[in-house]
Automatic annotation (TrEMBL):
Keywords: Amino-acid biosynthesis, Isomerase, Methionine biosynthesis. It comes from Stappia sediminis. The gene is mtnA. It catalyses: 5-deoxy-alpha-D-ribose 1-phosphate = 5-deoxy-D-ribulose 1-phosphate; 5-(methylsulfanyl)-alpha-D-ribose 1-phosphate = 5-(methylsulfanyl)-D-ribulose 1-phosphate. The keyword Amino-acid biosynthesis applies. Its EC number is 5.3.1.23. SUPFAM superfamilies: NagB/RpiA/CoA transferase-like. GO terms for molecular function: S-methyl-5-thioribose-1-phosphate isomerase activity. Gene3D superfamilies: translation initiation factor eif-2b, domain 1 (1.20.120.420), Translation initiation factor eif-2b, domain 2 (3.40.50.10470). Catalyzes the interconversion of methylthioribose-1-phosphate (MTR-1-P) into methylthioribulose-1-phosphate (MTRu-1-P). Also catalyzes the interconversion of 5-deoxyribose 1-phosphate and 5-deoxyribulose 1-phosphate. Part of a bifunctional DHAP-shunt salvage pathway for SAM by-products. Pathway: Amino-acid biosynthesis; L-methionine biosynthesis via salvage pathway; L-methionine from S-methyl-5-thio-alpha-D-ribose 1-phosphate: step 1/6. This is Methylthioribose-1-phosphate isomerase. The keyword Disulfide bond does not apply.
Length: 368
C-alpha cells in the first residue's frame, strides 16, 4: 500500500539479493522504520517480538528465515534446526507451520547445492500469492459492502467494525479484513470503520488506525468494550475480522476479544464475517476451542503500555495497580455458529466443513 505516496509492502528482498527488509511494526504509530533481517535469528526475533505480526506475514517472514539459515548451511540438519527455531516463535497462527512445511517439502528432496536459490524463489512466491489472495478477498468482500451501500441514503456510510489489525500490515500487502474496505473506498463507496483499539497491544489503535488514516478511509477508534453498544444502536452494519487459524468446520481463532464481538453481533443480528486466506485454514483440526493452541503472552503487556507523552517522548508506563497479577491470552476462538460467512480468495463461504472442502478440495488430498 502507499505510505506518503510511496508504495510499500511489509517485507521485501533487498537489492543485495539475500537480506530481507521488514517494516518494524513495534515502532508504530509514532515512527515508520524498517529493519534488516540477515540471519535466522533476526527472522525468529522479528516474529517473537512482533516486529512483524499477522498470520500471513508471519508465514512469509518464516519462509525468508529459512532462506537466511540455508545461506549459512544448506544441510538437512540446518534445515531441521531452522524449522524448529522458527516454528517455536509463536504457537497460534497456522500460516507459520503452513509456510515452513511448504518450504521443507520442496527443499528436502533437493541436493544441498540447489536449495538456496529454490528457497528464495519459493519465499518470493509465498509473498506474491499472499498479495493476490488478499486482492481476491477484497473483491469478494466488496459484494457484501455494496449490498449494504445500496440500502443507504446519500451521505450515509456503510459502517464496518473491525478488531485488531488484519490490514496490509498483517500481510504482505492489501490485508485481509481491510481488503474489502480498501476496495470499496477506492471505488468511491462511502465506508466508515469502527476500529477496536484492541488491548493490550493496541494493534487496532496503533496499526489499523494508522493504515486507514494513510489511505484516507474515514474511521473512528473505539475501546474494545464499545462495539456491542454500537451494534445495539444500529451503528454497525457489518463486522469483518481477520483470523490466525480457522478449523475445517469453520471455528475461527483470532485476536482476543473477537469472540465477544461475534456474540454481540449475533445478539443484534449484525453480519459477522471473517476474512480468511486459505493458508490460514487448518485442515487437520475441527474443534477450535479444544485443538487450537492459544498463545499466552507476557503479563507485562497488560500491566504496562508504551505511548507518546504530552512532551512527545515515547515512554512505557504502568497502567495496572502495582503488585496485582495479570493474565494475557492473546487469542480466542469464535465457534462457526456465530460466523455469518468466510470471505476467501475463492468466494464467500458458509462457515462449514462442507463449504470449505468444496472450495478447497485439493487441500485434503494426500499430496497436499
Ligand atoms: C491477517 S491475520 C491478522 C490477525 O493476526 C493478529 O494477531 P497478531 O497481531 O498477534 O499476530 C490478529 O489476530 C489479526 O486478526
Amino acid at each position: 500500500m502507499k505510505v506518503d505516496g510511496k508504495a510499500y509492502r511489509t517485507i521485501w528482498l533487498n537489492p543485495d539479493g539475500w537480506s530481507v527488509e521488514i517494516i518494524d511494526q513495534t515502532k508504530f504509530p509514532y515512527a515508520f522504520e524498517t529493519a534488516t533481517l540477515r540471519t535466522l535469528e533476526d527472522a525468529a526475533h522479528a516474529i517473537r517480538v512482533m516486529q512483524v505480526r499477522g498470520a500471513p506475514l508471519i508465514g512469509a517472514t518464516a519462509a525468508y528465515g529459512l532462506c537466511l539459515a540455508l545461506r549459512e548451511d544448506a544441510s538437512d540438519q540446518r534445515l531441521a534446526e531452522a524449522y524448529e527455531v522458527l516454528h517455536a516463535t509463536r504457537p497460534t497462527a497456522i500460516n507459520l507451520r503452513w509456510a515452513l512445511e511448504r518450504m521443507r517439502k520442496l527443499l528436502l528432496p533437493l541436493p544441498e547445492a540447489d536449495r538456496l536459490s529454490v528457497a528464495y524463489r519459493e519465499a518470493a512466491a509465498i509473498c506474491e500469492e499472499d498479495v493476490e489472495i488478499n486482492r481476491s478477498i477484497g473483491a469478494h468482500g466488496l459484494t457484501l459492502i455494496e449490498k449494504i451501500a445500496a440500502t443507504k441514503k446519500p451521505g450515509e456510510p456503510v459502517n464496518v467494525l473491525t478488531h485488531c489489525n488484519a490490514g496490509w500490515l498483517a500481510t504482505v500487502d492489501w490485508g485481509t479484513a481491510t481488503a474489502p474496505v480498501y476496495t470499496a473506498h477506492d471505488r468511491g463507496i462511502d465506508v466508515h470503520v469502527w476500529v477496536d483499539e484492541t488491548r493490550p497491544r493496541n494493534q487496532g489503535g496503533f496499526l489499523t488506525a494508522w493504515e486507514l488514516f494513510h489511505h484516507g478511509v474515514p474511521h473512528t477508534v473505539i475501546v474494545d468494550n464499545a462495539g456491542g453498544h454500537l451494534m445495539q444502536r444500529g451503528q454497525v452494519d457489518l463486522v469483518i475480522t481477520g483470523t490466525d487459524r480457522t478449523t475445517l468446520r469453520g471455528d475461527v481463532c483470532n485476536k482476543i476479544g473477537t469472540y465477544l464481538k461475534a456474540l454481540s453481533a449475533k445478539d443484534n443480528s449484525v453480519p459477522f464475517y471473517v476474512a480468511l486466506p486459505s493458508p490460514t485454514i487448518d485442515f487437520s483440526i475441527e474443534d477450535g476451542i479444544r485443538e487450537i493452541p492459544i498463545e499466552e503472552r507476557s503479563n507485562r503487556e497488560v500491566t504496562h503500555i508504551t505511548g507518546r507523552g504530552e512532551d512527545g517522548e515515547i515512554r512505557t508506563i504502568e497502567v495496572v495497580s502495582s503488585g496485582s497479577g495479570a493474565a494475557n491470552p492473546a487469542f480466542d476462538v469464535t465457534p462457526a455458529r456465530l460466523v455469518s460467512g468466510l470471505i476467501t480468495e475463492r468466494g464467500v463461504l458458509e462457515a462449514s466443513r462442507e463449504a470449505i472442502l468444496s472450495a478447497f478440495p485439493e487441500r485434503m488430498s494426500p499430496a497436499a
